[in-house]
Amino acid sequence: MKILKQAEKKTYQRDSALTRTVMDIIDHVRADGDKALIEYAAKFDHMDIDTVKISPEQVKAAYEQVDQETIDTIKFAAGQIRFFAEQQRTCLKDLNIQSRVEGVEIGHRMIPVDRCGCYVPAGRHPLPSSALMGIVTAKAAGVKQVAACSPAYKGYGTIHPAVLVAMDIAGADEIYCMGGAQAVAAFAYGTESIGKVDLIVGPGNKFVTEAKRQVLGDVGIDSLAGPSEVLIVADASANPTFLAIDLLGQAEHDPNSKAILVCTDEATIEKTMQELDRLMETLETRDVATQSWQDNGAVYLADSMEEAIAFSNEIAPEHLEVEVANEREVAQQMLHYGSMFVGHYAPVAFGDFVSGPNHTLPTMGTARYSNGVWVGTFIKTPFHQFVSQQGCVNLAQPTMHFADVEGLPAHRDSVRLRLESMK
User: Fold this and answer.
1) Cα 25–173–128 angle (5° rounding)?
2) Which residues sit opposite 294 in a β-bridge?
3) Which end of the chain has the least Cβ crowding within 10 Å, N or C?
4) Could you confirm whether 319 is annotated as catalytic?
5) 3-class SS at 362?
6) 360-375 burial code (b ≥16 CB/10 A, e <16)
7) Which residues are CB-contacts of 322 (< 8 A; sequence separation ≥ 6)?
8) Three-class SS of residue 343?
9) Using an 8 Å Cβ cutoff, are 252 and 288 in contact?
10) Rounded to an integer, what distance in angstroms lies between the CA atom of residue 121 and that of residue 127?
């Protein structure tokens, strides 16, 4: 494989200063609750507020600030996401079966968490799609109480109205205007006005990610997300204009976003780079996209499709596009990715907004062992066993022997005493 362009910088790095800063924020929220949240709202968002909780009147006002086409689009996307999540839910079933040992039944149940917190980031752009991905999926999973939060958006003094509308359409039970590590801490430990949650989902900046890392164990999390990524696998059949705009679509997210092209045809690569330069000039987000592409973009010429596939499986990208002649055959060989987009007419943008599968996905190679947010994220699977008197007799001897091997006499006697009681 020939490297034609390599990333020039590392897109994510955890340091001790970040760790200490987040630890201090979490400690402040745990100690002072709502007072700390209000202080951080003034410090970071320049907001003078009495509470971070969004009222029904504020939600109603948000609808008046959003045009009807946007509302209809949000409803369409919510329907798509809900449909897919509900179909996923049908795959998850309770299990109760007769053991191979007479008198013993074994199984599991699918039980949603009682309460979750959905974090919706707000940086350069409002992200109503992220509100839908978390809240709609949680509701489809059967979560009883879904709390949602997002930082104040510049120029509005509260959550961006499109995001607030999306939270409402998605079915959030509670909405809070808060962000950063302080929001994660509030969800993890609770405050006077915010109930503690069982699980926190949703992407965020490095402060949010570090906060999720630090509260893990006291509360569940979906993942530790890094900068967004796309890897495009292409051959001579690919359209260079499509390849170029898809690379730019990734690059415009954030200066730390990573876009990678792996192609088996050098002429296609050359045309794609020409198209990328041409399209970059007309892009409204070219400042961010240019920096992202310059710092983090990468281009590889693969000697064969087999090599391109192996490379993709090694990288395990968040988003994977397959733009090749035999797309389904190649797609079947892809093993590690967050979400895959197959075909010349399948840009990542569909998955970001409206196709249905979730866009909160594993990054930084974690797709090798994890997946994106789905209904299963919100469901735990506890096990059970029903044991009759006959089952107790049938399991007794191997259990007592294991107890002796491991030096646990009370374990042994918990069985022995039951056997003796049957005599």
Assistant:
1) 75
2) none
3) C
4) yes
5) coil
6) bbbbbbbbeebbbbbb
7) 233, 330, 331, 334, 340, 341, 342, 343
8) coil
9) yes
10) 7
Cα radius of gyration rounded to whole Å, the chain: 25
Tokens representing 377?
């994220």
- Residue 15: per-residue pLDDT: 84
Catalytic residue (choose from 28, 160, 253, 319): 319
Beta strand extents in 68-193 (DSSP E only): 95-98, 104-108, 111-112, 115-119, 145-150, 174-177
pLDDT of 386 strictly over 60: yes
Beta strand pairing status for 145-150 and 174-177?
A: parallel
Is residue 318 annotated as part of the catalytic site, yes or no?
yes
Separation between Cα atoms, residue 274 and residue 265, nearest integer Å:
15
Residue where the block lists tokens 């840009």: 347
Are 362 and 372 a contacting pair, CB within 8 Å? yes
Burial class (CB in 10 A: 0-12, 13-18, 19+), 417: exposed
- 71-76, long-range: CB < 8 A, 24+ apart: 71/165, 71/169, 73/354, 74/128, 74/132, 74/162, 74/165, 74/166, 74/169, 75/169, 76/354
Is 11's pLDDT higher than 60? no
What whole-number distance in Å separates Cα of residue 288 and Cα of residue 254? 6
- Look at the block and give the residue holding tokens 């929001």: 183
For residues 126 and 160, is the Cβ–Cβ distance under 8 A?
A: yes
Backbone angles phi, psi at 61, to 5 degrees: -65, -35
Chain centroid to CA 352: 12
The angle that helices 34-45 and 16-32 make with each other, rounded to 10 degrees, is 130
Of these residues, 318, 323, 336, 359, which one is catalytic?
Answer: 318
pLDDT band with cut points at 50, 70 and 90 for residue 46: confident
CA–CA distance, 131 with 56 (Å, rounded to integer): 17
Cα(137)–Cα(143) distance, integer angstroms: 9
pTM for the whole thing?
A: 0.94
* Cα 31 from Cα 82, distance rounded (Å): 38
Length, in residues, of the chain: 423
Which band of pLDDT confidence, cut at 50, 70 and 90, is reported for residue 217? Answer: very high
State which amino acid sits at residue 4: L
* Strand order, beta sheet including 258-263: 2-5, 298-301, 258-263, 229-234, 319-323, 339-342
